[in-house]
Design a protein that fits this description.
By secondary structure, this protein is of the alpha+beta class. The chain has one domain: Alpha-Beta Plaits (2-Layer Sandwich), CATH 3.30.70. The chain has a 4-stranded antiparallel β-sheet with strand order 2-3-1-4, covered by helices on one side. The longest helix is centred in the last third of the chain and has 13 residues. It is globular and about 35 Å long. It starts with a strand and ends in a 5-residue tail after the last strand. The model has no long low-confidence stretch (mean pLDDT 88).
């Protein structure tokens, strides 16, 4: 599992992601929203990206911030 940082255009409310427990959201001063996904596997990351797509939000960046040590 990894930690990811997703930045989208616009300020959004956490209620839109209420079904996703392990995320943190921060409204940035430049009008973007940063979503931090903690301990996500690929399926959970895809669920967040699908939610962003379904809401019609614009993805600015996706960044791996803490990779898991893999064998």
């Amino acid at each position: 599992m990894n930690d990811y940082e997703i930045v989208i255009q616009g300020h959004i409310d956490k209620r839109r992601f209420r079904d996703m427990a392990e995320i943190e959201m921060e409204k940035l001063p430049n009008g973007e929203t940063k979503i931090t996904c903690l301990h996500f596997d690929q399926a959970a990351l895809h669920a967040v990206l699908t939610k962003i797509y379904n809401l019609g939000l614009n993805l600015e960046r996706l960044k791996l911030i803490k990779p898991t040590n893999q064998l």
